[in-house]
User: What shape does this take?
Amino acid sequence: MGGVQSRAELDQFWQREDPWGYQAHPHDRIRVGELLAALPRRPYGHTVDLGCGDGFVTFELPGERVTGIDLSKEAIGWAEKRAATRVDRERFHFKAASIFDVPQLGLPPADLIVITGVLYPQYIGGAFAAIDAGLSALLAPGGILVSVHISDWYRSSFSLSRLVMHRYPYREYEHLLEVYQR
Amino acid sequence: MILAYHKVGPDRKTHWYVTADRFHAQLAALADRTPVYLDQYDPQNPKHVVISFDGVYANLVPFALPILKRFGYPFELFVVGDYLGKENTFDQPKEPPAHFASLSELDTLVAGGARIQWHSGTHGDLAAMNPADLERELTVPDALRQHFGPEHLRWFAYPHGRSSVALKAAIPRHFVGALACEDGDPQDRYFLPRILAHEGTRLAKSTVSVIVPNYNYGHFLEEAITSVLAQSVPPHEVLVIDDASTDDSKVVLSALEKKHPGRFRTLVNEKNLGIVENFKKAVAATTGDYVIFLGADNRMQRDCVEQCQAALDRDPGAAVAYTDLTIFGPLASVLAAKVPAEKTAVEGVYRWPFPDPTPERLANLEKQNFIHGSSMYRRSAYEAVSGYQSAERAEDHHLFLRMIRAGHRAVHVPQPLVEYRQHSREQANTALNVQHQARFFRKAYEEQRKANLELQRELDLTRHRLAQVANVFQTKTKLQLARTLAVNLVAPHRRRVVDYLVEAASAKLKGEATPPLPEALLTDDKLKR
Assistant: This one.
């Protein structure tokens, strides 16, 4: 994929469990708290978690049905393993797919889309416009999209009503959390 | 106009690729034209546009289709019949490997608004072929015709754009028309010209200047400017004009210039000009056909420039396009109760819908303004009414009122494309400011940390104390410190500054007077600025 990071590289990275060390770092607990606190209080039918990795955030999300998607098959393997041990495992569905293929997955309209650590140049190159269009179309009318990214590396923003821009420290970086509504 | 695309993707491997971001901007530029299928296309109609793709490559499904569907535009796909679902072996090694769309991918594209057309069997040099081979190249297999139905496979595109007398004579037996490249003839239905669309192809008829006027909003500037730089259709130019701010705006601006080199221009007034003179100076310093101001404490939604530019492109008689607003910030609820505005999914954030410009409302515009200051206007109308003028009412209201009275129209774009921050000056200078300054300290600190690995340990120890410091200072001292820090984080005094900040913070916490700045910092030339 030229300058864009390949699935093979990511799979290599996800060979071992928890490669980013989410379980041990206090800031990763905090970022889940920040995300949950930012979610508008309302019922969510279908939630989609993009860049779900091993499900670190996914399992905390509301939604009668939660679909976790990650480019890496290895990461999805870890997520499914973790889901299997949960009493609410029926809620979760995981799929290895590129964010660019999401419109073709035949997902039902989403009331909530969460996208964490995906929209960086090494993953999406100059194709954010395709993601913006695809995800806006996936979102149900009135649906919520939450984007969480390291602010220095993030250059995107969605063609949806932006309701919140919130920043907080994350490891040696700063996270930018945005809440959008269709 | 007929556009010819080939591959759309995340990056440009060769000049046959257009990135999805540019593809979006090129389609957005067609707002005032009418994209049609070839069957409806009238080459004499300057509004008609056909969007065509040759290949057809599988990468259209992920990278072009969502964008085409967003606009709802029809498009034409010229397939190389023997290569459906296969690799582009005939183009290699000149072109990197790429897959042609399979039959099911073509079905997906058809469901999204495509019509399938013919680009020969093998993409060979048809002009050099014997009649039997040529006939085979031009014959669409019956199975394919049946699969797609009678609306499809009616048009032909010459491989490599090349034709010959024999080839052109054979086309009408198979197709209702044919497309060439740039050398085509708009009068010849069997040799219509196309424009090869590349990454740099500019289809927009108008240009936009975004102006961000700033006065002491250093702590909000980053959000304002990055929201402009993230626009779906990048404006022709972005100008930040600083009206002699006394806060840390200059430091913030130079950091942003470093982060986004060449993406925006800065003008700094030596003396404070006041709103009207400052705005006039800014407009005179820009060249775009359309102008839009964004207050340095506000933000744009991603498609603000795109939607407003499209609205003015579509309506040449309109001088100004205004949007709805999202209102946020500590005083949002106060304004929301007054205007009134609607609740959103987030508590304390509101949508302020604006009315359509009916004749009655326009007649009453003097008393009741509904064209806000971040509306996009036409430079020619601005010049015709002699621009911003000093008046009792707000300068933008006065300007738009004169435009409307001069007979221009206004158009309403009913989406909250501008995010309008509600806060008081006082707040800006206290609580929020401190919060933003803390962010700024932290960021500056982090940059330095990365650049000085040998000092990392020492810096780690003081990082958390530094964040506390920012919260306990008085504004005046803090501004001085912001400047000191910004200049000094790369200088040999850094250690002293950090020591001083810690000392000052503990004095503050104990209720003692802030200690004076150390002599070494005061005598450093760089710090005196």
In short: Helices of chain A lie at 7-13, 26-38, 73-84, 121-124, 128-138. Chain A touches chain B through 45 residues (CB under 8 Å).
